Amino acid sequence: MGYPQRLLAEGERIDLQLRPHWKALVLPVITLILTFGIGGFLVAIAPKHGTGAQASWIAIGVVALGILVWFALRPWVIWLNSNYVITNRRLIIRLGWIHRVGRDIPLEKINDVSFRHDSLLDRMLGCGTLVVESAGEHGQVELDDIPHVEETQREMATLISGDPAPQARQNQN
Hints:
Blueprint: E1 14-18, H1 26-45, H2 53-80, E2 82-87, E3 90-95, E4 101-106, E5 110-116, H3 120-125, E6 128-134, E7 140-146, H4 149-161, H5 166-172
Antiparallel strand pairs: 1-2, 2-3, 3-4, 5-6, 6-7
Helix pairs in contact: 1-2
């Protein structure tokens, strides 16, 4: 789901819409697979009849459900509700589902945009941390696990310098 057009100012257009890199979902998927595998194994070896059979099945189900909700579903919801939108006028940060946090930084207030790859895996996947330094009172914002972080940094620098967006440059030619 994209950023709602109704929330943009007149003449404002979206240049980039980002969410954290898919690598943030690898561990939750592994947790999901392992939980189903181990849960299935435990159900298979659990007693089928006798005292405690029903209690062991309920215990396995409750533990598996708790693991799935906390370590698989929660990270997926967090990922799904983390949005970074770059328009021709501002950087829009929206995080969270129930506890929602938002921040808008006008592009003219941004002093510096840099990036870093925090690991070899980040470098191989092309993701990293985008560091946006603004003249506001909150100063520096670090956006973790940004996909195509180098291209994103370059695009932001282009927008901040006042050059037309790539689409606008193509239309001029």
